[in-house]
Amino acid sequence: MSDTHQHSIAFVRDTMLPEAPPPAMETGIVKWMRENLFSGVSNSILTLAALAAVYYLLAGFLPWFLNGIWDAPSLRACREILQGDVGGCFAVLTERWNQLLFGFKYPSEEYWRPTLAFVLLFAAAAPIMFPNHVPRKLLIFSGLYPFLAYWLIWGGSILSPVFALLGFVTGYIVWNRLVKQSFAAGFFGAIIAALITWWIGGMIVEATVSDNTLLAAVPSRDMGGFMLNMILGTVCVSLSIPFGIALALGRQSDMPIIKWICVLFIEFIRGVPLITLLFVANVVLAYFLPPGTTFDLILRVIIMITMFASAYIAEVIRGGLAALPKGQYEAADSLGLDYPQAMRLIILPQALKISIPGIVNVAVGLFKDTTLVSVISMFDLVGMIRGPILASTEWNGVYWELLGFAALLFFVVCYGISQYSQWLERQLQTDHR
Amino acid sequence: MTTLSDPPRESFRLSMLINDTRYRSYTFQFIALLAVIALFAYLGSNLMQNLRDAGLNISYEFLGEPSGYDINQTLIEYDSRSSHWRASVAGILNTLLVAFLGCITATVLGVVVGVLRLSKNWLVRKLMAGYVEAFRNVPVLIWIIIIFTVMTAVLPAPSAFRGDDPARTMFLDAVAFTNRGVYVPKPVWLEGSGIVVGVFIASVIGMFAYRRYATKLLYDTGKLLPMGWPSLVILIVPTLLIFFILGRPIALDYPALKGFNFQGGIQIRGSLIALWFALAIYTGAFIAENVRAGILAVSKGQTEAAASLGLRPGRIMNLVILPQALRVIIPPVISQYLNLTKNSSLAIAVGYMDITGTLGGITLNQTGRAIETVLLLMLFYLAISLAISGVMNVYNNSVKLKER
Amino acid sequence: MKKSVFLGALTVAGIAAGAAAAGTLDDVKARGTLNCGVTTGLVGFAAPDANGEWEGFDVGVCRAVAAAVLGDGSAVEFVPTTGKTRFTALASGEIDMLARNTTWTFSRDVDLKFEFTGINYYDGQGFIVPKALGVSSAKELSGATICIQTGTTTELNLADYFRANNMDYEPVPIETNAEGQQQYLAGACDVYTTDRSGLAATRAAFENPGDHVILPETISKEPLGPLVRHGDNEWGDVVRWTLNALIAAEEYGVTSANIADMASAPGDKPEVNRLLGTEGNLGEMLGLDADWAVRAISVGGNYGELFEKNIGENTPIGLSRGLNAQWTDGGLLYSPPFR
User: Fold this and answer.
1) Do B371 and A291 touch (CB under 8 A)?
2) CATH of span B84-185+254-401
3) E-strand spans in C56-103?
4) C324: domain range?
5) Above 80 in pLDDT, residue B159?
6) Lowest mean pLDDT among A66-75, A120-129, B394-403
7) What's this model's pTM, rounded to 2 decimal places?
């Protein structure tokens, strides 16, 4: 064969051709662009349209942003510096920075307290958010954090948070003692023990109240700015999780009356807008309290938002409970566990794990909804902008800078949380496979 | 409870109520019911006490009294002599209007963006992701205010259209974009316009009949009739013909600058546009995520199977993916509609006179009847929510049934 | 935070419930601060300055009452209220008095059960328009778009006025004065209407106040004054007579500058002596001490001084006294005698 071959063909290549580079159309950025941006007529049109959109956005935004004035006492001064050029007047942010963050009434020499509480929030949240990466011992700090943060932000006698904590501790001890006999005894015993501690503590605090405390007391009415959004968001979310669990269990319960109470509550709250609940907190709730009682507006709002959030969280957790295979319930029953044990040891740990992304979504939504309190004349971040700052003679007419700043602040926080939620979802997924 | 007439073994009976699972649930329910009743009784007695102290009462008579205020946008006849009740109805209709417009726009936007987020085009994909993230992570109140500020501070005032050499001119001489809203021509129904409308409705029916027939023919015989251009012809040509034969019975009333404002035409107010767009864009971002998740939930095998049958990509989407994805998409989208309707109560921030603005706003202020108005307000939203979720659940069930 | 907030609430509720039986005057004394409802921000009347200190004409009345009752003009907790929340806040006891340019009307007094304790500013509703519009009378406003604050009497007056004059208009409801300003300046409405004092205050905040005119028509009577809850007459008297003391002090020539001298020893004017507590026991009758009026007047000056400092002709707001001059100067301010 090879012989004939040699004779019939004049030339045979006996070495490999050197590797030629791939055609320019098929490599690197050009290939990427061909495949991703210009793979067809409609695709190319889309790309061009998108490019035009990006160009217009940037052409409008960049000069305004880069030309911005960061140091001026008023809008008029800003305009004088700009001399008719396009440019933002970001001086309002530097000038009113503290007001935007803390409201206009929080004493300025105490700003370090909410700041410290904010920083510590990360330390407290870390062991809960990253249980596998942070030592479990830090959970103790997470437990202490609410009381510490309360003391830092509101100030006043250190005894009130201490007694509040003591109430929980005694409740826990009593619960630990009694739970071996019966769950109900432990549960109600703990509540009674905690209430007694708080009652005694309340009297002691009142008796020892004095003006020269370590941290000066700041009334809730003085909270404002982004701090108020943060306080409302964190407090209401953390309070609403236990309530949400209780409501979800109640809704899944076999006991018809308890089930219907929970269903009515959840559906009622989910059926009305948050703003009407805030109206209730603001203009109606006072009529339903004992005569002469005056509640802090911030406390009334916390109660209402907590009710609102717990209804939504209850629905998320109900989804988690429903998603568990029935075998889990039956397995718990067959082990002879009673209802509290089965829930505590078998069902809830799994159901909550499934519900975490949903809960985080509710939390993000709730945090965004805290801006609604500006409608009932509370000076949160949006309220500060729409109220005192835009009404002032100096900054009357600075909308974009302020609104953009508010949007950016919320975006950073909410985007961060939702990225965390997605990360967590991935973590949980790998656990299951 | 039922064993009250069982005196000798009292201690045993009591412990049985807690420890015996047969009776325990009755105990718990009884306690819960008692607690709820006690709570309501406590709140009710406080309310009575407070009202008595303040010399007030609960009465809905104010609803029949003249409201005394004007509403700029009403879908029903209303003036300042009308009753508070009529003002509330006007507000309800405004709420429904913005919710309806918002839901439609949000759906269209959400579906388009959701599909584009899965596009092969990198730039478009990233741009859409940017849109979704930007709107999902910023409070809707801020978006409403931002869009409203765009409407009032960026668009020109009507006076800019004034004079011989105005700073702004009307778009196509028919539409004026001002910071008081957008003015568009209004159709004027002259004699014979009924016939034109009748013909148009008939051609719509005819178009659908044709499409049904074409589909049936395709399924029965495999013969493919063209769909696009014939339906267009059926839709447009007869109406146009009759329109010109009858001598143009439908005219347009163009807005024109007279006095302080544009007169004539239809004014779509800035507050409505701001609220409508903000709600639609915000909710659209959420719907886009639902649509994307729904499409991703359809297994890739379905796409590949359809492709191996020789379907074009557009048809794969329309005939294979979307019908299946719809079952996943619809339930969350229903709750987005509900959210949009509830968020429309933020109209108060832009002065759009919805139910929160009339009944929960001005009526509450003028009459001071806080409890009554807030209660009515909540009942209204509750009714709306239940109605929407009811209707949508029925639809949802009908979609689900086909699965089996 | 968690439950400790509730703990705080419980103790607060306990204190409040315990004190509920007593009158507002005793409440305020026991609490040590006066809760005073003000607007969320109207320059000249009540607005927080850059440092968060409230200042303005209405604020001055609050401070005077606080000084009279508690001896400290800064012992005031200012509660910002909107048109919607102001009456509930007062009715529910969240605030002790409301000094928020609130118009005294029959239904507010009788139906809503409030007690107006006097008038600190005689106002009337007016219109502001850009000069460029060339309007010189409210009668020419037919067809105009008008910005109006919701939840105020001005809304009703406006409807009545246009109805009576057979004109039509388009209302643009707004929630706060700042919003009204923004919309009006952007041209989203041709006219902004509110109390004339408010118009002046708003115009003062404009970049070019000269480009805008306030039309001559006053379409309503708007007597603005502080109010308290119905039924607590002792407290009502304290607020009423503190306001009267400020007005009377101007009439008698008592100012924050000379009050220390005049109060040190009885002078030759018996009326002044009674007012300043150097003669008689008026303070005791009110449930306060003899120096109550001295403190009320010294904290911000008499009525005239408050007016000049906050809204008078030398301030950016630039209101003239007009109806708010003393009766001796042809105005309507007329304090009942102190005897």
Assistant:
1) no
2) 1.10.3720.10
3) 76-81, 97-98
4) 23-122+224-329
5) no
6) B394-403
7) 0.85
- Eight-class DSSP state of C326: B
Output the pLDDT for position B18.
Answer: 65
A219 contacts chain C (CB < 8 A): yes
Shared domain for C235 and C194, answered yes or no, is no
Domain contains C6: no
For C236, other C-beta atoms within 10 Å of its C-beta total 23
Single out the residue in C176, C195, C220 at which a domain terminates: C220
With a cut of 70, say whether residue B202 has pLDDT above it: yes
| Partner-chain contact B348 C171, CB within 8 Å | no
Domain termination site, one of C200, C220, C240: C220
> For A378-433, what is each residue's pLDDT tens digit?
888 998 888 778 877 778 778 888 999 999 999 999 999 988 888 887 877 655 44
Does C16 reside within a domain? Answer: no
For chain B, say whether A274 makes contact (Cβ under 8 Å): yes
Is residue C15, in this structure, part of any structural domain at all?
no
Please check whether residue C1 lies inside any domain of the structure. Answer: no
Domains contained in chain C, number:
2
| CB interface of B with A, residues 215-234, below 8 Å | none
User: What's the Rg (C-alpha) of chain C?
Assistant: 21
Q: CA of B235, closest CA in chain A: separation in Å? A: 27
Q: Are C241 and C95 contained in the same domain? A: yes
For testing contact with chain C, the best of B57, B67, B260 (most C CBs within 10 A)? B260
Residues B383 and B340: beta-carbon distance below 8 Å: no
- Cβ pair B156:C142 closer than 8 A: no
For chain B, give every domain's residue range: 7-54, 84-185+254-401
Based on the domain organization, do C209 and C232 belong to the same domain?
Answer: no
Dmax (CA) of chain C: 64
**C115 and C261 assigned to the same domain:** yes
Report residue C246's pLDDT band, with 50, 70 and 90 as the boundaries. Answer: very high
Who among A184, A275, A284 is closest to B371 (CB)? A284
Count other C-beta atoms under 10 Å from residue B246's C-beta: 16
What the block records as the tokens of C224 is: 């603005």
Sign for the CA dihedral angle at B45, B46, B49, B52 comes to negative
Q: How far apart are the first and last CA of chain B?
A: 48
